[in-house]
Amino acid sequence: MKVGVLALQGDFREHLATLSRLGADASEVKTVEQLRAVHALVIPGGESTTISKLAIAFGLMEPIREAIKSGFPVYGSCAGMILLSKTILDPASGQESFGGIDISVRRNAFGRQVDSFESDLTIAGISGEPVRAIFIRAPWVESASEDVKVLASVTIDGTSHPVAVQQGRALATSFHPEISGDDRIHRFFLEEICQRAVGK
Fold it and tell me: How far apart are CA 47 and CA 50, in angstroms?
C-alpha cells in the first residue's frame, strides 16, 4: 500500500512516521507525479490557508480534487478536515478546499492556540479504550449531509459538534492522532478504507 502525505506545509513528517510504523509504504507528495504514484493520500494538520494556496501554486489543487471525486482514499486531520470540507464557513482570503466530504466546517472553532486541549473520545469503528484526542486550533463540523457518517463528537456548552467524520473513502478528524502516539485512526484508514478500496 503506497500512501502519500501532502508535504507542502504542516506536520506531514509525523503522519509519515505513523504510517511507516504501521507497515505502509509512505512518501511525501509535493508534485502531480508523486500524487499519481500513490494509492491514497493524507492531508496533515497545519495552516489550512497556506496549504490551500501552496496546492494551487504547485498545480495540485485540481488533480487532488479530481482524484477524490474518482474515489481516491483520503484522510485529513485538523487543517486536513477543513481542506476536505465542501464548505468553509469563515475562509481566509483566497482559501479553497479540495472537497470530498459534504460538511460545513468552522476554522479555529475551539479557540486559539492557548485554548488547545485534550479529550478522550469514543470513536465508531475504533475498538478498545477511548482515543486520546489532541485539539490544536481545531475546526469542528457545523453541519453535515445525510451521506456523512459522524464517528465522534465533542459537547461544548451543551451543543454537540462532530469532530470525526467519514463519507465513502474520505475520512477526517479535527484532532491530531499523528502526535498522540495512538495509531488506531491511521490503522482504521489503512484497513477499513484503503485496503478495501484496493481490494475492489
Answer: 5
